[in-house]
Amino acid sequence: MRTLRTTLLTAAAAGLAVTALAQGPAAAAPAPAPPTFLSASQLPASLTPWTAGPVRQGVPSEGSVCTAGIAPAAGTRHRDFRTELDTGARQTITVAATTARAKALAAELRSALETCLDRLKEQDPGLEGEAFYQGRVDIEEGAHVYSIDTSYPEVGSTDIGLYSVGRDGRAVTVVEWGQLGELDGAPLEGFKKTTRTAVAKLY
User: What is the pLDDT of residues 37-55, one digit of tens each?
Assistant: First the structure.
């Protein structure tokens, strides 16, 4: 009888141990992979091939004059692209701590693009130009495209820049494209396609 009682107690203890293990905390889910950047082949068509630089941590140290100082260095990465002609591009991705912060960041970046030309003219009275909102791209939480055409009449130089801001959840991306010339020669539809791809690749 004592042997039977001992066997039952041992079995009960083993059962409790298995139950405790089964009810223990679940293993932590693996961290999601970071957002994916555009490849060179996904940039708007150019007369010479695009070359993609490495993905770098933090915000760009120079350039991006319209949006400089807005995105935080923490959680931000960027990648530059170039061609053999006077054409360049850049993609910046920021992963915010929360969706609300990402939404606010996207709104702030859009505001910076909308006011960029006026700020540039204040800094350089000799600058002339036009800025346009080129519409929304329906992808994830949405993307918005802008163009800024600038010129220096005294020297006869003109530059065109295309910009977009898009968001998917906590990730916000800015895509910039620029070259010598005017808006009529810019690949606007190709840039919108690039923007769509950039947002789709975030997650």
Answer: 999 999 999 999 999 999 9
